[in-house]
Amino acid sequence: MVGQSPLKNILLHTVLLLGVAVSVFPFYWLAVMATRTTSEIYRFPPTLTFGGELLNNIRNVLSHIDFFGSLLNTLFVAVSSSVLVLFFCSLAGFAFAKFEFPGKKILFSLLLLTMMIPHQLSLIPSFMIMQKLGWVGTFKALIVPGMASAFGIFWLRQYASGAVHDELLSAGRIDGCGYFRLYWNVGLPILKPALAFLGIFSFIGSWNDYLWPLVILTKPEKYTLQVTLSQLNGVYSTDFAMVMAGTLMATLPLIVMFLLVSRQFISDIAAGAIKD
User: Fold this and answer.
1) How far apart (Å, rounded) are the C-alpha atoms in residues 166 and 160?
2) What's the whole-number mean pLDDT along residues 182-191?
3) Whole-number Å distance between alpha carbons of 195 and 146
4) CA separation (Å) from 166 to 170, 171, 191?
C-alpha cells in the first residue's frame, strides 16, 4: 500500500494470509475426510492428506439417498425464493429510502422489531397457516413465506439511502417517470452491488435451510438436500466418511456459484465506489 513501510506491508499480508488459511481450512478438512474411511477419520493424530476412497464414498451416498433429485428440488426452491427476495426487498427498501408515505417510520420500526424475533418461534404459527392454505408438503410453503425478509429490506433501504441521489429521482420525475419506473429505471441499476450480496446471501440461506423443510415437507420425493442428507445418519452407527462425501457434494454447487458471481460482485462494488 502507498505510504506504508515494507515491514507493515509484510505484516498486513501475513495477517491476511493467515485469515484466508483459517477460513479455507474447514473446506480442505471436509474434502480430506470425504476421501477417507470412517476408521481413518478417527485416527489420531489426524491425517491431513487426501485418501483414495472418494469414489467409494460417493457411490455409497448415491446408493443410500436420491441425491440428484433432492439437489434439483433445492435448486428450484433456492432460485425461486432468491429471485422473489430480490424483487420484493428491493421494491420495499427503495420505497422506505426515497419515498414519503403515511406511517413510514412506524412501519420501518415494526420491520426492525421482526428481526429480533427468533425464527424458531414462528414455526408453529407458520405451519398452521400453511395447513389452512393446504400448502403442507409443497414447495409453495418453502418459497412464498420467504419471498421477502426484514434483513433484505433493511439492507437495501440503507444502501439506497446513500447510493441513490435525490437529484436522479428529480430528473426522472421531470422525464415523466412514475413511482415504479423510478424504481425500475433509476434505482435498480444503482442497487446492483447490494442486490448481488443479497442474492448470494438469500441463495445460501435457502440452500442450507434444514429446520423448516424438515417440518413442512412430507413426501421423500420433495425433500430438499439438507433433509435428504440427514438420512445418511444411522440409528446405531454412522458412516462419517459417507456423510462427509455427501456434505462435500452439497457444498460444491455453492462454491462454484460463488466463484462465478464473485468477480461480478466485486466489479459492481468498485463501479459503485467510483460513481460515488
Assistant:
1) 10
2) 90
3) 16
4) 6, 9, 14
Which grid coordinates belong to 156?
Answer: 437495501
Per the listing, cell 443410500 goes with: 64
Distance CA 65, CA 245 (A): 12
Contacts for 122 with CB less than 8 Å, ≥ 6 apart: none
What are phi and psi for residue 257, nearest 5 degrees?
-60, -40
Query: What is the residue whose three cell numbers read 444411522?
Result: 234
C-alpha cell at 225: 438436500
How far is the C-alpha of 262 from the C-alpha of 256, rounded, in Å?
A: 10
Question: 173-182: per-residue pLDDT in tens?
Answer: 888 888 889 9
Q: Which three cell numbers stand for residue 8?
A: 507493515
- Report the distance separating Cα 22 and Cα 18, nearest Å: 6
Q: Output the nine-digit C-alpha cell for 27.
A: 473446506
Q: What pLDDT score does 276 carry?
A: 46
Calpha distance 102→104 (Å, rounded): 6
Ordered by where they begin, the domains of the chain are 65-232 (1.10.3720.10)
> What three-state secondary structure class fits 117?
coil
DSSP letters spanning 155-213: HHHHHHHHHS-HHHHHHHHHTT--HHHIIIIIIHHHTHHHHHHHHHHHHHHHHH--HHH
Residue type, 211: L
**Phi/psi zone of residue 121: left (φ > 0), alpha (ψ -120 to 50 degrees), beta?**
alpha
Tell me the CB-side half-sphere exposure of residue 216, using CA atoms within 13 A: 29
Question: Is 75 strand, coil or helix?
Answer: helix
AA letter at 182: L
Half-sphere exposure of 151 (CA within 13 A, CB side): 11
> How many whole angstroms from its chain centre is CA 201?
3
**What pLDDT is attached to residue 267?**
60
